Amino acid sequence: MGRGRVQLKRIENTINRQVTFSKRRAGLLKKANEISVMCDADVALIIFSTKGKVSEYSTDSRYINICNIYSQDCSSIIHNK
């Protein structure tokens, strides 16, 4: 039997919130790496903490290329509406 659903709500205790953020950030970065390796996908991930610290992951240092492709795709969607 698996875990039950976790009720999503803001963690009020600042220390607990920061610890949870750090653990989940590490998990997201790991998953981004896994999907890029397993599926040969270009991946870019940006995470901003509440303090303004930026964590990022991108495949093969192609962050700028991935962002440019995303930007072009978004602009074509907006213009087609």
From TrEMBL:
Compartments in which it is found: Nucleus
GO cellular component, one term: nucleus
InterPro entries according to UniProt: MADS-box/MEF2_TF, MEF2-like_N, TF_MADSbox, TF_MADSbox_sf
Main localization of the protein described in the UniProt heading: nucleus
Any single GO BP term: positive regulation of transcription by RNA polymerase II
Gene Ontology molecular function: protein dimerization activity; RNA polymerase II transcription regulatory region sequence-specific DNA binding
Taxonomy, superkingdom: Eukaryota
Domain MADS-box span(s) in chain numbering: 1-61
A Pfam cross-reference name: SRF-TF
Record keywords: DNA-binding, Nucleus, Transcription, Transcription regulation
Name of the protein this chain belongs to: Truncated transcription factor CAULIFLOWER A-like
